[in-house]
């Protein structure tokens, strides 16, 4: 699913960039795809080198981001196709995948992907119990019980149904 | 793990705004970036979560927040090191050599031991994201749930005022348990709205829109206070849906002289409605429902730059006249025509070039697109004369209904921009 420029050599007609994940694997990406990431674009503008090491993005996540960038950099695809690709891209992905994805899009500054993933995460959060979200999203509750009770009291309507459920 | 029932169905605003989304400058910038992503709402294949998910209606509307720059500061500390070698590339391998763990990257289905919620590094990844990204997530949630996330951890507290272009959507029936003591819930709702507008958003200079649905609360004075508080937040778009309010004059007075660009006023007045005293100098889109002709006439007389008008269910008695005299009007939509049978409509809108609809008809040289949804027998009779009067008509949309199936007729005239 990941598209790459198979020609490989840097002297190929199409300029390519090598991106290395924190796992050490390298991905060959066309420059037109890489510059959709604001961060990568900046790096490429500053450096001549064509190898970028991303120390906090793993293979799996990086492969997904690159698939996204390559699709969106493909001039041959219509906007409609790109849109349906976006839909498919996050559909069915679990939260554990999404959280690394959103972290990566934040690091790489891929605005439209960040938008898509955030929307998906919001969809997952909808109509869930606080405890469920905390557990599934790995959110550590650092409130004291007193502070939490106070917050629940102040905006009671936000949780009224949940409290009723819990009773 | 309990499932939260959404017992109260949120009612959609009866009609979308015709064509205004791309016309009002306030909305345009957002639409371009969000284009096509609304379809994301339909992300259906969530096998992993669908079991736990209540199928509440989804009215949240997302938009792109300014995430650009959200992480610039991070770039410094994240070592994006330069090249160490140029050759020796190997074919791309998307199978990680060193998987973090099964918990963190399940590919298919759930792993058996992913329930303890511990990240491999023990880091709360989500909460450590920049506020901009968290706000971005919250912007897709209904106001009630966006506020509700503040309980997750201290990091999630007080994020609401940071959301750019915040859309407030409130509904006093939302998840209200019918069997529970509703008065308690209403007080709880009123406290929530008071705190939201007067405390939480105290230091916010502007929000995008304010929509409130009051089916239970009928005190016009209370709602007027909220409207005033919302107007202080420099909103351009407002929607109010109220069932039979008491003290409705307060309600309408609160809108006097405001800078709204778009207003949905769905207020079901029990009687003739109050004497209106309006001034809406910047209003470009107005959608009204349940209003009698006289208040509507008064209202329209106070909207000097109105461009889009949608009138639903105007209760007209025989002999009453609805006067639509708006020089700037570009599009007009009359919904549920049954109510119009006895009503005389005076239409004076030179930009619309559509006069005295439905009878008598004059020529509409500017009319290029016409949609008649749910055309009934009356509409069929009218159609030939409408077509004769529209020599430049290029597109005609018709949807027929059988005579008995529905009593709703909707006519929509769209003019060339």
Question: Mean pLDDT of chain A, as a whole number?
Answer: 80
Strand order of the largest sheet of chain A: 2-1-3
Poorly predicted spans of chain B: 1-121, 353-362, 405-417
Determine the strand fraction of chain A and express it as a percent band: 5-15%
Mean pLDDT of chain B: 63
Radius of gyration of chain B: 26 Å
Write the layout of secondary structure elements.
The complex is a heterodimer of chains A (167) and B (417).
Chain A: E1 16-20, E2 26-30, H1 31-34, H2 38-46, E3 51-53, H3 59-73, H4 79-90, H5 95-108, H6 111-125, H7 130-136, H8 145-154, H9 156-166
Helix pairs in contact in A: 3-5, 5-6
Chain B: H1 25-34, H2 72-77, H3 131-138, H4 143-148, E1 167-171, H5 182-200, E2 209-214, H6 220-231, E3 237-243, H7 248-253, E4 262-268, E5 285-289, H8 293-301, E6 308-312, E7 321-325, E8 331-335, E9 344-348, E10 367-375, H9 377-388, E11 395-400, E12 410-415
Parallel strand pairs in B: 1-2, 2-3, 3-4, 4-5, 5-6, 6-8, 7-9, 10-11
Antiparallel strand pairs in B: 8-12, 10-12
